[in-house]
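re the bet — no i am not wrong, look at it urself. input seq straight from the record:
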Amino acid sequence: MRRRGRAAGWAAVVMVLIAGTGACTAGTDGDGDATPAPGKPGAPRTLRVLASSELADMKPVLDAAREATGVTVRPTYAGTLDAAEMISSGKADGRFDAVWLSSNDYLRLDPSVGPKISSETPVMTSPVALGVKAETVRRLGWKPDEVTWSQVHRAVADGKLTYGMTDPVRSNSGFSALVSVTSGLAGAQSALTDSQIREATPRLREFFAGQELTSGSSGWLASAYKRRGTVDAMVNYESVLLSLNRDADTGLTVIRPKDGVVTADYPFTLLTSANEEAREAGRELTEYLRGAKAQQAITTQTLRRPVVTSVEPAPGIGREGRRELPFPGSRSVADGLLDAYENKLRRPSRTVYVLDTSGSMKGSRLTRLKSALGELTGDFREREQVTLMPFGSAVKQIRTRTVDPADPEAAVDALDADIAALSAEGDTAVYSSLKEAYDVIGAPGRSAAPSFTSIVLMTDGENTAGDPASSFGSFYRSLPADRRQTPVFPILFGDSDRRELTDIATLTGGRLFDANKGSLDGAFEEIRGYQ
């Protein structure tokens, strides 16, 4: 029932700069690695790159590339779909010199993108894989090298396997995982079609019933996975799973399903709108990154596979070959698969929005809140349950709406009316209101069906009424175990206390979103990947 374009998430893009400059032009050493030309210093150059957020782990390699070539990469991180929309709409022209995503497969589905790309160079690869607890592998009697997607589906359908996966609408790894699972269960031998998706839908619905964790980022998913402790597995890129084993000691058995996978090839892609200097800098950068020295650093540090055959993959990376599963044959098929996932296949979302409507929100702040929530209603999914809980000195009212697939606009219209009726008055009872939100989640008669349940807290000030901060910790720890699994996602806004909101996120397993460094509607939109 998505009423807005997929570019809506662009407001939530996080900009990160990789600092530093170089002072040398590039040559080539005996290994094919780019190196500074002795005695020929040149002006440093900067490439503005629209990039997948997972490429933040390439910073050490890019720092070395800067020293060798004088080229600094300045990334702006975005999801695959948002990046594709930016490029196809022309919004990337003049703002970026290159795009660097996990894959250009989705990008290529838009015929208008072709003329906007001048070259694309694969830098490294990583297939989608399943990371499973060792004890679960033993319990299922699996031989890791022999496991198929059908076996994984059967284990999930029989209630013997649960897992986490990132949101395919907002995460490159989640999108690749969705295509892998669908192609594997559909038995696709060529480009995935609408009819194959429809045929596989009953099995896909069974498969996604076992998804107990969702996330807008791989990093938070890993943290939530460790915190929950009861989830059996994760679907992600092989490199992410191996990195978790190395950095977080998760002890996952990394399974690359025998019947095939979708592989990310991370093509560094120059845009035709880039000037000649930027294009030359891009060519020098990719030449360096495909050199033996950089390829060894990439596989060692990021646990991705090198694209240069003479370079040995890092220990732990699978050596067995796997068939490349076919990608959807058209943009409409890909978007249809995403829409089916959001509205039909995955568990529904259940979210309580605890909204500060105290006196300090009067005027432009309340207007911004209403605008942000109004934008969000067009993004609600079928079967989603949404509770608005505005508060001041106490909770003012509790309104819950469920998006009925038979008449989704009815709930959206009701929510729009609820939002329009919000008014600002009273003090700021943050912790009393949060406690009431947890009570609402556990109230008798509330939906007992499996869902992705979360609380979103938005406040523009410090707690000035009701229970003090000191009482919330003991309250939370006294909750039943199932309710303690509900994270709080606070939004830093106005004069709210960062330390206190960070403490709430840390205690409950949520994440803090900073609307003071971006937009309030961007913060709400970014949270959608975690619901």
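see?? Residues 6-122+267-303 form a domain with the D-Maltodextrin-Binding Protein; domain 2 fold (CATH 3.40.190.10). told u. also The two ends are 16 Å apart (CA to CA). so pay up
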